[in-house]
Design a protein that fits this description.
The chain is mainly α. The chain is 63% helix and 0% strand. It has a single domain, classed as Fic/DOC protein, Fido domain (Four Helix Bundle (Hemerythrin (Met), subunit A), Up-down Bundle). The protein is globular, with a radius of gyration of 15 Å. The N and C termini lie far apart (39 Å).
Length: 146
């Protein structure tokens, strides 16, 4: 099943996505601190033992891009942009707008350490497969950010 997943090809592609994201979203520094952790994430999500589902892979990509601070500016934005590219490349067109809208606030909360990876996976799974967050998920999000 996962053999048909299209992955982001290289850190150079990520750097180009970062450049475009910063340019289009209002600016900021294009400086790079260290891309090793993000490079590792790009490779790790291809391992079906560690990340067996599409939601697992997307969650790890988002979390790693957000938390690894590879870039001087735009780490929260690159988490969203890379994830949207991953969604687009894998035919999830129907959720891209919803993903962008919901993940803007979530990205900030992940960066601030208020939303951990397990809750992020629940949120991403909900965006992928449900019309809206369940009441229990809304409560979990609310409790994590209050």
């Amino acid at each position: 099943m996962n053999n048909s997943i299209t992955y982001i090809k290289s850190i150079e592609e990520v750097i180009e996505i970062h450049r475009k994201t910063v340019e289009v979203s209002g600016g900021g520094s294009l400086g790079i601190f260290n891309t090793h952790s993000l490079e590792a994430a790009l490779e790790l999500i291809q391992n079906d033992v560690y990340y067996p589902t599409f939601a697992d892979k997307l969650t790890h990509l988002f979390f790693s891009a957000n938390k690894s601070h590879c870039f001087q500016d735009g780490n929260k934005r690159i988490a969203i942009s890379l994830s949207m590219k991953f969604l687009l490349d894998n035919g999830h067109l129907f959720v891209i707008q919803k993903f962008a809208e919901k993940m803007e606030m979530i990205s900030y909360q992940v960066a601030a350490g208020r939303i951990e990876k397990d809750l992020l996976k629940e949120i991403i799974s909900s965006v992928l497969y449900e019309d809206d967050y369940s009441e229990s998920l809304k409560l979990k999000i609310w409790h994590s950010i209050e």
